[in-house]
Write a structure and sequence with these properties.
The chain is α/β, with parallel strands linked by helices. It is 35% helix and 14% strand. It comes from Malus domestica (Apple).
Length: 287
């Protein structure tokens, strides 16, 4: 399913970019194309965690790892030198640079779009990039990860506006697909639990958009390659509820104990996601 567009690959490799948090799930798939990346300590302590990256085709020739710490000012100078852009996949937002780059890309989440009070949903109108989730509602639900995504993205927009930085954000929904790092992230772990018959994590998910990891990586590349890209971009495919998801998976994998009934926490919100802006750049996510 990976990208077959050799022209896009070549252009991407020649221009070069830097990406933070290179051990992360989504980041590993973007690294399949050439980049400079940072790791807090690329030495012996993280040798095993980095091994999957070096096994990818071409990384030994194209990937350069630099020791850098998000909390240490100045540690990114060498990492970013010579790059045309920055993918920032972690927080906090960096301070003002005397040598600004062409553009910054921020990996946010559809969680920053889709959670609203009951009265805020317009019937039959898919949510687009103009929608923002309610921080107050996330606080009430005591779910902190999506709230951190909202606050970090808002802070990023404020910071870039104040400092004249061109920023684009990608907002993936629930990411599925092969996990390149040796250790499962929480998302992949939730999916594995579902395939084993567990429902605890998914009862919190309710209605959710899903997207393949390769499509997420491609979306990041497209907003990089298109100079016209601006603002936020929702990256998603099918939006479905737990019951539909369980039924779909159990039909496809009948030998697995996949549940088809889930406890419903709170009132379910029916929504769809408008991905036309992402599609305008050439993205064709697979359902």
């Amino acid at each position: 399913r990976w990208i077959e567009n050799s022209i896009l690959k070549a252009k991407f490799v020649l221009r070069g970019f830097w990406i933070s948090g290179i051990l992360a799930y989504k980041v590993a798939s973007v690294v399949r194309l050439s980049c400079n990346g940072d790791c807090k300590d690329p030495g012996r302590e993280n040798e095993k965690k980095l091994a999957h990256l070096w096994r990818l085709e071409g990384t030994k020739e194209r990937l350069r790892l630099v020791k850098a710490d998000l909390m240490e000012e100045g540690s990114f100078d060498d990492a970013i030198f010579g790059c045309h852009g920055v993918f920032h996949s972690a927080s906090p937002v960096l301070k003002t640079s005397s040598d600004p780059k062409a553009r910054a890309w921020f990996s946010s989440s559809s969680a920053a779009v889709r959670v609203r009070p009951d009265g805020d949903f317009t019937s039959n109108v898919p949510l687009d990039e103009s929608s923002w989730s309610s921080v107050e509602l996330w606080v009430t639900l005591q779910i902190w990860y999506p709230m951190s995504k909202i606050l970090a993205e808002e802070a990023g927009w404020d910071f870039c506006k104040e400092n004249g930085i061109d920023m684009v954000t990608v907002l993936p929904s629930f990411v599925i697909g092969p996990c390149l790092p040796p250790e499962l992230c929480s998302t992949a772990s939730d999916v594995l639990g579902l395939l084993k018959g567990e429902t605890e994590k998914f009862k919190w998910h309710g209605r959710m958009g899903y997207v393949h990891i390769d499509d997420v990586a491609l979306c990041h590349i497209l907003v990089y390659e298109h100079e016209s890209a601006h603002g936020r971009y929702i990256c998603s495919s099918t939006v479905t509820n737990n019951t539909e998801l369980g039924s779909l998976l159990s039909t496809r994998y009948p030998s697995l104990p996949i549940p088809t009934k889930f406890e419903q926490l709170g009132r379910p919100h029916y929504y769809e996601l408008n991905i036309s802006k992402m599609e305008s750049l050439g993205s064709r996510v697979q359902v």
